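Reproducibility note. Readers wishing to regenerate the assembly model reported in the main text can use the exact inputs given here. Chain order matters: entities are listed in the order in which they were concatenated for prediction.
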Amino acid sequence: MPEIKITPLGAGQDVGRSCILVSIGGKNIMLDCGMHMGYNDDRRFPDFSYITQNGRLTEFLDCVIISHFHLDHCGALPYMSEMVGYDGPIYMTHPTKAICPILLEDFRKITVDKKGETNFFTSQMIKDCMKKVVPINLHQTVQVDEELEIKAYYAGHVLGAAMVQIKVGSESVVYTGDYNMTPDRHLGAAWIDKCRPDILISESTYATTIRDSKRCRERDFLKKVHETVERGGKVLIPVFALGRAQELCILLETFWERMNLKAPIYFSTGLTEKANHYYKLFITWTNQKIRKTFVQRNMFEFKHIKAFDRSYADNPGPMVVFATPGMLHAGQSLQIFKKWAGNEKNMVIMPGYCVQGTVGHKILNGQKKLEIEGRQTLEVKLQVEYMSFSAHADAKGIMQLIRMAEPRNILLVHGEAKKMEFLKDKIEQEFSVSCYMPANGETTTIVTNPSVPVDISLNLLKREMALGGPLPDPKRPRTMHGTLIMKDNSLRLVSPEQALKELGLSEHQLRFTCRVQLHDPHSDNDTLGRIYTHLKSVLKSYSIQHVPDGTVIVESIVIKVTSSAEEPNLKAILLSWSYQDEELGSFLSTLLKKGLPS
Amino acid sequence: MAAHLKKRVYEEFSKVSQQVSLEEAPTKKLRLTKPSKSAALHIDLCKASSPTDALQYLLSFARKPVEAESVEGVVRILLEHYYKESDNSVRLKIASLLGLLSKTLGFTPDCIVDDAINILNNEKSHQVLAQLLDTLLIIGAQLPDKTAVIQRLIDVACKHLSSTYFGVRNKCLQLLGCLGTVDMPLGKETDAGPGAQTSPVRDVQSLISDYFQDQDPRVRTAAIKAMLQLHEREMKIQQIIYNQACKLLSDDYEQVRSAAVQMVWVLSQLYPESIVPIPSSNEEIRLVDDSFGKICHMVSDGSWVVRVQAAKLLGSMHQVSPHFLEQTLDKKLMSDLRRKRTAHERAKELYASGEFSSGRRWADDAPKEKVDTTGVNLIDSGACGAFVHGLEDEMYEVRIAAVEALCSLAQSSSSFAEKCLDFLVDMFNDEIEEVRLQSIHVLRQISIHITLREDQLDTVLAVLEDSSRDIREALHELLCYTNVSTKECIQLALLELLKNLTKYPTDRNSVWKCLKFLGARHPTLVLPIVPELLSTHPYFDTPEPDMDDPAYIAVLVLVFNAAQTCPTMPALFSDHTFRHYAYLRDSLSHLVPHLRLPGRKQTASLEESGVGSGSLDSAHNFLQDSLIRVSALQNLETPGAQDLLEFTIRDLQRLGELQTELAGSADFCATYLRCQLLLTKALQEKLWTMAVPLCLKQNAKVSTAARQILDETYKLEFLYSGLETQQIATIHNVRLQAKALQLILTARSKQGVDHVLGICEKFLQDVESFQRLFMTELPHFQDSFVEKLLELMPRLTACKPHDLVKIFQTTLRQSRFIHLKLPEQIHRASATIIEPTGESDNPLRFTSGLVVALDIDATLEHVQDPQTTVKVQVLYPDGQSHIIHPKPGDFRTPGPGRVRLITQVYLSHSAWTEPCQIEVRLLLAYSTSSCKLYVSKPAWNESMDGLPTSESSIEGTIHLSKPVKVFIMPKPARR
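Running the prediction on these inputs yields the following structure tokens for the assembly.
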């Protein structure tokens, strides 16, 4: 039986360095190639030696697919392609292809320039790697080679995020990457058609969470910002450069527009500006509202949001500032924070999760005095707010996607083992399909039952149709007679005569004969007559003939009665039937063995 | 037969010119003045050398209409050609033409049923078959009461249902749906006939439901649609198909799912109370609950079309049990397997614990108790969270549908209204304005059921700062109907409204009105905060606030309206408050109610309360009495009659001012009577006995009177809504009289005969059209001017102009005064310009030659079809006037009968030396040709020779509002 094998190199019962190997129909595909944020050593990247101990990966992989530009999904790409060595095609969507190198370059700068690591990929390697990328469009079916085809679906999450369907013959796999089933201010919801894949590989970050409506959180956020600004306070929003930042920008921008507010909003520059440029370009990837109104105005061309300059932080009066990085551990956001922390009119809003040990984490836990750079203490008087905006599907969303795609099996990745366990149970319980959650390096094998297409000759089909009712009932299987010819890598079903003709064979008749002994006191002819009447009463819908030369013919079955001179009462009944009437013939023989009714 | 017909057609065609010239056969004349359609078609078709040509001829033929009497001929020709034609596309076109032709008015298609069925039986091409079935469907629809024909059609459809082509099956199902009947078993007819088929006796419904499982999604859709069609035709659909329909909800194709949702909904409406089992358990629930759950499920369908449909239908399932209904708003939250409360619940608790609007702390939403993992059902088959999903949907169409559904469900269940409040309030923050506006409207509609909590009110009020005027006004409207729970709420609302007022001063009227209702609705809540609001102090005198401050007026409006039902409140007022009350009561009487103030003179209030609402009946009686009194007059030339008329007019006008409900009727009567008075006076003038040259002055007077009467009649006809035909006829009668008067005057003053002749002819046309329009009303017009004229009509047409004038003159003087029957509901169209107010002393400066936009805000009442009739007129000091047509989008309808016009007019002028005032006013455009009584032309008529369009249509305008003066100053451009 054909199998699909799936091995996560990363993201198996874990979040980070997503990298999943799939072999399907003799093809090997790598899904995502990410880095892990938690490690700074070799564990940062997936273990490519699993694929081959030495040498390049090109001959072992048919293609690499990147779902979106987050580093935990694409961070190891230059390492894999340039340092380990891979020359085959890398597939990603257009926005991902545009934004991915910016992030990779940023990542490289931080590791190499700031932390001083050596033996890391260079800018040139990023460039070389991106040259191997083949961009794909949504719903476009790309033939990787003659048998392997891939198709991308919209996934929400971040700009350009995609789910991919990988198909070889009638076997298929869907990989979701990260996705979001509820729309947000700048992106729509993930969507997939009822493609019924053999296996769906889904992320499960929020496997045990059912989220509240987004609107409450948005409203709270806006209300807080608005109140602070009206009081004359300053609002600091530490963000990571891409993704949520754009959503919050849109949110504030439209709110400012609606409410006619005048306080300035600033965005600290950096890689954001470049990325924003791409957000403006890829309007088709955004949500309904932005797509519909961009003719009048591109929503990403912010009217109220301006570039930030270091000197603005000391300006009097209210303002809102977006600054990087998001956890307040370094950089501009921390500088601004230090300046504003002393005034209780001000506010800082943390839009996401903060790692332990960062300033962000401390203030969220209510610490009022911070030690910064040794002896200096900073009193935190400003208000601290937490506002989570996450773009992953929650448990209900995951179930909804499963319902949309109707897969035969489900495999969970990109989540914590404990949470997966719960979701796995739920899935098995509610959809009654099997669900897997392999750890890194563990292989899951799924047996598929692919349908084999066979060409059927039209004549044969018509002949069969004429026999049955006017319309074939699609819900019920039907047997038909024909000859299966396997020739030149193709399968054909034709009528036996045609097959004989094509193959140049002559037809052989196959007849079975059978002798049944019967005690009967009558003469031969009478016995035959009795058999005839008996059969007539049993086989009502068959044509039964009593031929004068001493035989009874039922369809193609010939029945004769003979008796030896010694024992006239012991009659030998000869039955003979052709192969085609095997069923009827054996029925008759058993019937006659039971004897005739007296 | 066909040959004979062809011959006849040829004959007709060739005879045409001859017949016309000779006029031998007058009976046939009408038909033969034009070459017969059928003949032309036949010739064309015979000429066609290739199928493409034939198709071209047919296409061009189809563009022109065919008159009813020649349809049959055309059909025969088409059929004949059909038999000969081998090309599929031409046959298809012919088949479609047959259908089109059988729709002709006045043609009964039963004669072609036989032929159609006949060609159907011989047809091989699937496409043509489908088209033929379509034609049969049309024919069947034309003959709804011929059961025999219908039965035959149904038999044909049943026979072709087994076709292998989806189009044919589609059409068959459509036909069955449109024509089939459920009660009558199929195949009865065929059984009775000789050689009957052994088809089992089945009804249409089970036959159609067989195709619910067809392999082609289009056929499945058609089958469901056919079933729905049966339902629309009020056939009783059996419940058995419920399970099948439910299965189709998970079909792969969106159109099937979309139709199936409708089907399930229909069944839930038909059999709400019947019991269905829940699969996988042995419980049973009501069908309506089951289907509600299933449709709720479709709100998270993959296709947004289906989602919209499902959301819409949910709104109309009122019978669903409250338990299920409330589930739709419940999405059991959890976080890391712990139960979590929603933000709504948290807000409620915070509020209940007395701590309002605390900042949210990190992990404030920390999950509480652990959830039993087995108990969590992630995709409930029930209604769980359907609306939560719908309101969060990606497409705004779905969101709007969900909001509307919420509204409709909340209106029938107050507990549900309470629950959905939070969700609706959340929608105020939607990214699309349409959705925000819709949710505000919805909240207003359900606001009778709910009382807003303080935190909810806070969220609602935040929207007051929205820059969109529509949103703000919708919110004001909402606040007018809202109940709040505490005095803090009132304070909060007032505060926010005042903030709104300072930010958007143009909202003044709307804010005041809002506070008026808010005060009147919550007198007891306002009472404790009155001292604070008016900033009075028990010991000290506080400075007197500025009377012109809109914010202060706003506060006073709130207080005075609350004081109306709260007699203890005035005791808290300080002296200046009473003075301000008197001032406001005068200047803003629509916002400030009458108060019974201690120590005030009671007389004034007595007089006012005398005309209170209780006197509506007596006012109505008075109106009737006045009219009866007038109707006692037979001849207006009797001495006292004119005085009586004058008094009555005065009475009616005063009545209209006092009693706003009757203003329309009173004004209408007064205007009519004035017309009569003017007419009588004009006829009484001595000039009629004087020689012409001696009475130039009187002449002028009479002609102005005539002019005035004409104007008044147009006002009577177009300014008032709710008129009956009889009244319109009466008005027309007066108009004819005025026209006759004008005619006589012209005849007397001018000597040229030709000139008079033209006018006379036109006048006679008018009389004729009167007769045509008001044929049914003529009995009411005994002894009237018109009736007399109509009697003389045969004579008049032959008369010379001067005799005509003489006749008119005598008829005019002899004719009786027609009494007006008081119509039931008459409303006078009116308009008020709110913006600009005309009070500004600062001229609007702009560079001459360029344009400046002037914002206009006006309310229109009782104007019919304002988009086409209302215009804005700008009158410059030099007499130039411009008429501007506002865009249809500028008209909004905040309530029944009321229309709001918010538009911009662009002004421009060359330079002036001084600022000057221009006048802006609204006009009501009318045109007599657009009169409602004209029948629209039949569609299949020859378009060329219809009614002459120029038929005495008079277009004009009536002033609808008082003019408003705007100071403008175009400055010369600086170089």
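We highlight two features of this model. The radius of gyration of chain A is 37 Å. DSSP finds 16 helices and 30 strands in chain A.
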